[in-house]
Amino acid sequence: MITLLKKSCLVFSFCVCSINLVTIAQDYDNLEHWAENIAAEYAQETEQEDIALLIEDLLSLTKHPLNINNASREDLERIFFLTDLEIENILYKRYINGPFLTIYELQAVEGLDVKTIKLLQPLIRFGPVETSPGKIRIWGDAFLRSMYQLEKAEGFRKNSEGIRPFAGDPVKLYNRIEITTNRGLSAGLIAEKDPGEPMFANEIKTFDLLTGYLHYQNKKGWIKEAGVGNYQISAAQGLVVQSGMPQRKSSMTTSIRNRRSPFRPSLSASEYSGMNGGYFTIGFERFTFSPFFSLKKRDGRLAADSSCISSLREDGLHRTSAELEQRHNTTELAAGGRISYTGKWIDVEAGHLYYRLDKPLCPEVKPYNQFYFNGKENRNSWLSYVISQRRWLLFGEIAFDQFTHPAFYHGIIWGAAPGFSLVLGHRTIPVKYHAPLAAPMTESSSFAGESGLYSGIKWELPLRITISSYFDYYRFKWLKFNADAPSSGFDWMGVIEKDFDNDATLYIRYRHREKPTNIAYNSAENSVVDIKSDQIKGQFRQKLTGGWQFTTLLQWHFVNIDNNRETGNMLSQDIKWKNTKENFTATLRYALFNSSDYSARMYAYEPDVLYMFSVPAYSGRGSRYLLLINYKIMNNLHLWLRCARWKYDDRDETGTGYQLVRSDKKTTLTAQIRVKF
Prior knowledge:
Radius of gyration: 25 Å
Structural class: mainly beta
Number of strands: 31
Strand content: over 45%
C-alpha cells in the first residue's frame, strides 16, 4: 500500500497528463461502435444477430455499475471489450496499490488506453465496498416494439385456390418487461410473434413465443445464484454446451477465450437456442456446484413414416400449415451439473451433460453427414482450466462424448511487451464427436472432424495507432457439406485503427480466406477447389461540434472460384445529429451497392432501436435508405421510430417463395417505446 502522499501525487499527475478525460461523457453509443465490426463478422459467419446480447449485458451495467475495488475477474469478464490481459492488469494494480480512488488512476494500468477508459466510465464506480444493500429499491424496464413491411409478400396473398398461405397478419410484435431489485432478485417476461404467425387464434392461443425468468443472486451467501425459466448456459470453450452467442473470430483478434457467464437469465427472442428450466449455484468463496436442467419444446421435420425426426428446425417461424404442424412437436431434455474451483492463479471446472429427445433423430444419410448425431440421447463431459499470471494466461478444455472421442481446445494469451499481446489457440475435434448443444470457436458450424491452429496479435503503437491481426489454419478430416473430400483452408485478417485528437477514428480491415468447396466439371463427379475471398473495409467516423457525427463506410469483396471472379462494392454515408439537451437523436443512412453474385455479398452494421442489431447482406445492385429517430419524451419514456428501404436496380421482384415481393422495393417500419420505472 503506497502512502497517502504518494497517492495524492499520483492522482494529481494523472489529472495533469490526461486533462481530456475531464470531458468524458456517458455516451453509450460508443459501446455499440465497439460491437459494430464484430456484429458484421458474426453475421457473415452465421447470419444471426445474437450480438445484441453483449450490448444488453453492458447496458445493464450502466444501471448497476461494478465497484472496481471489489469486482472479481468474472465480473470484469462481462465487459467484452476488455481483453484478458487488461483484466489481469487491473486486478494486479489493485492488489499492489490498493483501491482505486478515481478514474484517472486507471491510466496506470498497463494496456489501458484513454479510449478504453472512456468506455469503462459508465460501467464502473469507485469508493468503499457497500456492506449493506440499504433500503429495498426496485427498477423496471418495459418495451413494446412493432415492425411492418409495406410491400406485401407472396405468403400474404391468396393463391389460385383462394387460400392465403400465411395464417397471421404481417405485423411483427415484441413485448418485454424486466424488473430488478437491489436485493439480488430480478424477473422478466417476453412475448413475440413473427410476421405471418397467428395470435389469439385456434392454432396459437396467445403469442407464438411467451416466456420469462425469475432470478436470484447473492455472492455473499452459500446460495450464490438460482434461476427458473429462460436462461443461457455456457461452459469452458463451448465444446459441450454454449447457448446464445458463441465465440467467433473477429477484429478483436486476441479475444479467443470464451468468457460468457456460466448461467445468465435471458429474454432472447430466439426460440431454438437457450434453455428453459432451472439451475442454482451453491458453495463458498472458492468452490461452487451448479446443477441445471432444461425441458423445452422444439420444432422437428418428421420423416416420411413419422417415426422419427429428419432434422430440427431453427428458424422459429410458424406461419403456414406445414410450419404449424411442426410447431413444438418434439421435447428436448438437457440436464447436468458443473463444479468449479476458483483460486488466486488457477480456475478449474468440470461438468457433465445428458441430452435426450423424445423422438429419435434420423437424418437422411449422405456421405458428408454419416457421422452426425442421430438417435435419442447423448452424454458429454468436460474438464477445463484457466491459469493466469500477470503477463500470460493459459486456458483449455477437454471434452468427451459418451466418455470416448476426446476433443481438445487449448490456448495461451501472452503480454509479450507493453502494448503488444499475442495469442495462440489449438483445437482438435474427432469426426465421431457428438455434442448437440456445443458451439466452440471453429470454422464450421458442423465442427466434428475439424482441427485448427489460430494465432493473433494486437499491437498498440504511438500516435494512437493500433494494429490487430489473426491467422487461422484448419483441416477437415472428413467430407463436409459442399466439399466431397477431406480438405483444408485458412483465414487471415489485418486491421489498422487510428484515433485522432479531434474525435475522429479511421478503421481499415483486410481479410483473405481460402475455403474448400465442390465444383461440377461434368454430371458424373465433383471436384473440390478453394473459394478465394478478399474483403476490404474502410470506415471513417468524425464527431463535430453541435452534436453532429459523420460516418463513411467503403467495402469491396472479391471472390474467385476456379478462375470465375465475382465482385462486390458498397459505399454508405451516415449522418447523426443530437440536440444540446441530448433528448433527441436522428440518424440518416444512404448506401449504394453492387455485387455480381450473392457469393460477393457484403455485410454492414445498421443503426437500430435499442436492443436490436441489424446486419443485413448487401447483394445485387441498388441502394438503401435508413432513418432512425430516438426521442426522450421524459426521463422515463423513450420513443424510437425507424424506416429502412431497399431499392434494387437489377430486378423487378425481391425474395423467393412465400417471401417473394412483386416490387423492386422493400420497406420496413419499426416503432419502439420504452418505459422505465
